[in-house]
Design brief:
Elements (H helix, E strand, L loop, with lengths): L1 E6 L7 H15 L3 E6 L12 E3 L8 H12 L6 H25 L3 E5 L8 H14 L3 E5 L15 H10 L7 E5 L2 H11 L4 E2 L20 H5 L6 E5 L9 H11 L4 E5 L10 H12 L6 E3 L7 H10 L2 E4 L8 H8 L4 E4 L5 H5 L7 E3 L6 H11 L2 H18 L2 H11 L3
Parallel strand pairs: 1-2, 1-4, 2-3, 4-5, 5-6, 6-7, 8-9, 8-11, 9-10, 11-12, 12-13
């Protein structure tokens, strides 16, 4: 089957992009031909026969940023100006999408979160128009929804909110919805009376990951962690819901200058760098400047992530909210202990209930007991190894490529 993927960006380390790469690997393993149209191929070698670069689909295109500004941040008094422009932009996009579909004889579409979250209004609207015009079946891989993001996607104009609700998520007869957590399944059932398929985020447990090699042995020293020091890893982007301030508080409470916190993600998705600046101020106020390392410049793709995990002692993951939690499964695959917050609405319902051994906070509260538990693990390499092996076996059982293959075989039966 010839499958066409529409995605805002691919090749980076955000959750949607990472999970899409895994879907591509498994779909190709199943014998499908996969074609991609995207606004960004971040660290991705473009095959001109299979990949089409279309800049307007980028979340950082002038069209997308203008739409977001006028819809949610700095709206005009008359919302018609915005809505008319979105319609015009979406008409331009759907024209290009129709040509792309015809050129590659696409038989089924895959929308990667573009039909769920209105972070690119005209792209989502264009996908709806494409499906209506062509009648093609489509799988929407829905990671999260606008009503889960507080007031981020709420406009002061009722007309804009109605427009968003009419297009996100994509509700048409020829749509198959894949969601990444139980909450998503329940949401589709309760809101729309639709049965969605749960496809958890996965990792390839049959390939080495997070192992020390000759090529990565200097990775930590290259970013400022000395040989006799311990690296705690915060392998996430810098956005507020990741709860990085809790990891910094933990560092301060551990009170050991040999423990360093390595934050691997960038702050490209942090609105106006507000959260990043708060973290910098926190680090300064706690006098931790020599113990917190921002290492995004060293982490661009899967290989770099694997190198990060290779030499870290344990991982912090104190998110308050996640659609699933790629970084959790990555830590499990790398056999690293993980300290986690009971993030909503997913952790206990979809992950913690499987029996993973962690130190888990409630409501991001670092109690004296929890800090002691974390400390006991950090200073005991044998215990770290034991926890890592235990969690790895559970991860392979519940979140492997084999699980993904079974799900995709069902979804792509057209």
């Amino acid at each position: 089957m010839r499958i066409g993927i529409i995605i805002g960006r691919i090749g980076g380390v955000d959750g949607v992009a990472l999970e899409t790469e895994k879907w591509i690997a498994v779909l190709e393993r199943l014998g499908h031909d996969v074609y991609i149209i995207s606004g960004e191929f971040e660290y991705w070698e473009i095959n001109p026969n299979k990949h089409y670069y279309y800049p307007i689909l980028s979340f950082f295109s002038s069209e997308c940023e203008w739409e977001q500004e006028k819809a949610f941040f700095n709206p005009d008094k008359n919302p018609t100006i915005l809505l008319d422009q979105v319609e015009k932009n979406s008409d331009d996009i759907v024209y290009k999408l129709e040509n792309w579909v015809r050129t590659h004889k696409i038989e089924v579409l895959l929308s990667e979160n573009a039909s769920a979250l209105p972070c690119h209004l005209s792209m989502g609207v264009a996908i709806k128009k494409l499906v209506e015009r062509t009648g093609l079946p489509i799988v929407t891989h829905d990671h999260d929804f606008h009503w889960e993001r507080g007031d981020r996607y709420i406009s002061e104009h009722k007309e804009v909110n109605d427009y968003v609700n009419n297009h996100f998520p994509l509700l048409l007869p020829n749509v198959s919805h894949a969601v990444i957590n139980t909450f998503g399944v329940e949401t589709f059932h309760n809101r729309f009376g639709i049965k969605a398929t749960l496809v958890p985020n996965v990792m390839d447990f049959d390939r080495p990951y997070g192992l020390p090699t000759e090529g990565n042995r200097s990775f930590l020293s290259d970013i400022g962690v000395k040989e006799n020091e311990i690296a705690l890893l915060q392998v996430t982007r810098i956005v507020r819901r990741k709860g990085i301030e809790t990891a910094i508080d933990l560092l301060e409470q551990l009170n050991d200058h040999k423990i360093k916190l390595v934050i691997t993600g960038n702050y490209n998705d942090d609105e106006k760098n507000e959260y990043y600046n708060e973290l910098v101020n926190q680090i300064h106020d706690l006098n931790l400047s020599n113990r917190v390392i921002f290492g995004a410049h060293m982490v661009k793709d899967h290989k770099d992530l694997s190198d990060v995990y290779a030499h870290g002692r344990a991982c912090t993951y104190f998110s308050t909210y996640e659609g699933f939690g790629n970084a959790f499964v990555e830590a499990v695959l790398a056999k690293k202990p993980i300290f986690v917050n009971n993030y909503q609405p997913v952790y206990m319902q979809d992950i913690g209930c499987k029996g993973f051994e962690t130190v888990m906070l409630e409501d991001s509260e670092l109690t004296h007991e929890k800090v002691n538990q974390i400390s006991d693990i950090i200073y005991n390499p044998d215990r770290c190894k034991e926890i890592g092996e235990f969690n790895y076996k559970l991860g392979k059982k519940h979140f492997s490529f084999q699980i993904l293959q079974e799900k995709l075989e069902g979804l792509f039966k057209f």
